[in-house]
Amino acid sequence: MPELNRPNVPVPRRLPVAGALGLAVALVIALLVTPTAAVPAPAAVVPKADCARHDSGVQRGVCVRDARGGIYWLGTLRGYDGVEMYCIDYAFATDWGVAHHRITVDGTLPTSIGGRVGAATVAALNHVVTRHPASRVDDTTAAAIGLIIRQVMGDVRRPGGQAIPGGLTVASRVKDVGFVPDGVVRRARTLWDEARVHRGPWRLAVRIDAGPDGKVTAGERVRAVVRGTNGSGTAQAMPVSLRYRAFTGPATVALGRDGVATVPLTAPPRATSAAVTARVENAPGTRPLVIRPHNWAVNPKPGRSSAISQRGLVGTQEPTIASTSVSTVIVRSTPILRTQASAQTVVPGAAIHDTVVVSRTGGAAGSFFWSLIGPVAPGPDGRCPGVGAPEWPEAGVLASGTVATTGDGTYVTPDYVVGAADVGCLTYTESRPETPTTWPVTSPPGIAEETLLVRRPKSTPCVTTVASRQQALVGARLFDHVRVGCIGGPDRVQVRWTAHGPLAPRAGSTGDAGCDGIPPSAWLRAPVAARGAFTAIRPGTYDTVPFTVSAPGCYTFSETVAATATTLPTRTAPGIAVETALVTRPPLVQVPEVPTGPARSDSVGGWWQQVLAMLLAQAPGEGAVSQPGLSRAGTFQPTARLAPQYLDRTYRRGSEFRTTTRTARGPVAGTLRIARLRIVAAVESVPLRRGVMAIPDAPSRLGWLRGTAAAGDVVGSSVIAGHVSDRQDRPGPLAALVRIRPGDRITWTDQRGRRHDFVVRGVARHRRSSGLPGSVFRADGPHTLRLITCTSRVSGAGGFHYRDNLVVTAVEAQ
User: Fold this and answer.
1) Nearest CA-CA partner of 306 in 102, 169, 157
2) Rounded to an integer, what distance in angstroms lies between the CA atom of residue 361 and that of residue 430?
3) According to the model, what pLDDT value does residue 664 have?
4) Please, what is the average pLDDT of the chain?
5) How far apart are CA 103 and CA 481, in angstroms?
6) Statement: residue 685 has pLDDT above 90
7) pTM of the prediction?
């Protein structure tokens, strides 16, 4: 509560001793005697002047009057030698001029009525006046401390009248007083609750955490744990200053609400004794300072005024120091050397070294001596001798030296180049001598991490291969001739082989599509046609197990040789020309006729038309060659051509296709769709009959020429043909094919439901009287779809016919 502001009231000048005693008696009478005839007045705060009329020393606090008219001063007084203090005796004379002296209360405090205040309560009271000196408090705090003192001393007694209750100890709380303002009571309770818990004496304890062994080694980083408690025995937050002997650490640390702080320390770099001292300045003590007259005595008549002068409790005191210390002995440390050789197995010519991790040196500088010893023979199991093996002391020293250290860290020995004479087991050993702060330490020879085996160099087998055939037909058996060399003696190598394929040919460096244009990465993702393994025990040629090729495409071989104890691994890459084969379906012997519609001669007779066709069939580049089935360019395409048979008559399929039902078909070969042209037609498998493609009679069905590439092949041309219209000139699905253009998509779904997409790359017309080019029926090259029908309709008196074949060329979409 803020200080009460009252008008200035003249303070009576200090009276002589006799007058002061009389004034004190008058004050006592005013406080204790209330006329019985008067009506009790309500409790109220009255001006300080009302209390100052009875004692000129009134300073800070509150003047109150009870309901019976008695006046009470709760606050500080300026008394002996002008010192502002708290009064601790009730109803005593306030003669500040009497002889007096200062005493420090040690333990209990006597009251003016013959009782004694316990030591714990005195400590709490001392906490209050130490933290709130009389000369620096406001009125409310001064009044609150005055109320605490009155309840602690318990000496406000009046016969039959209202009094301030006593009996306040550290075990109880401030009681309510009806005529004391609520703000003063609340402030008194806050101050006393704090003092009850945080009173002195404060205590400190320091413990050095030295680890499991309880020892602190030179240069070691440890920690000290500082704990603080108060007079109530609970954890106490406090600022702590630290001093050290030999240790280094922070100068101050703050204990938190849990009363604990962890302090990092560094031990001295050499063996000695060390200590830590913790101090707290201005910690609350337990002994208050009291100013009292020489002739002070207990009031012989409690509740009545006494002529013996007042005692005062001073609100300042000497700072209290709570300190503690702990000592320890710093001992020498035993360093740890952890080593790791740069390799476990090497061959002559390799550079080796040892990596040494040094720890627990306490930061002390030093050095270690290293040696590389050997070689010794490995055991029957191929392993090197271990620690303590008798072979190591007999081994020679190959290299040695000294490495300086600056404390804990990782250090590397100089490189040593292994020679041919070093074949066998080698090991490193290190030793660190004694220093003022560390003991000597040595790593023995034979530790597994610093031991290595020097082997003789391994040979690499030489492997070359040649495929059994580089051109073959479906159904052929392929295998690889594998030449293995560069082995001998105890060498036994296992060769694993893989046949990759089929893959579609690709354009190579010359621009022509072939197997040599396939990159190695594509071969590694290709299907596996066959695989196996064999063991080579001597140089020679070994054949892989033959396998039957069931699908056309490019095939290649690759071999992998695993490492052995005497040889290194090796392999051959897939796609090497001599181990690659192109497999095709058998090429057609002749260029077939594709009779996709009726035709007839226009200006010459049919016999002459046939003769002309035969002459054209022998044109350069399209004539027969000495090797049947191959053109002069060496490609798999038919070269011989027969004269057209169906120029003046309509084609009919052979009797093998005739049936009593109108829906009879050949073997199913799937469905063809061209979405943009809305073409959908079933596809049948059809043969050649005397050089003529047996196209279905109905225009709603198309024929795939059996013997050309199937829907799922990756090599060759797939030839599909069909009619534009039927004999009654009713159009079929291919009537719209004349509107096709490059970029259109054709989908061929085979009989198993697998979809194959093609993109149109070209559209061409060929005179039916001349026949189709042999390249339309190629068995090699990337998979290509040739869609054939008739076009160039000619109408006349005798009906209509088609002069040309329309050939759509589409490549398989990637």
Assistant:
1) 157
2) 15
3) 44
4) 83
5) 118
6) yes
7) 0.47
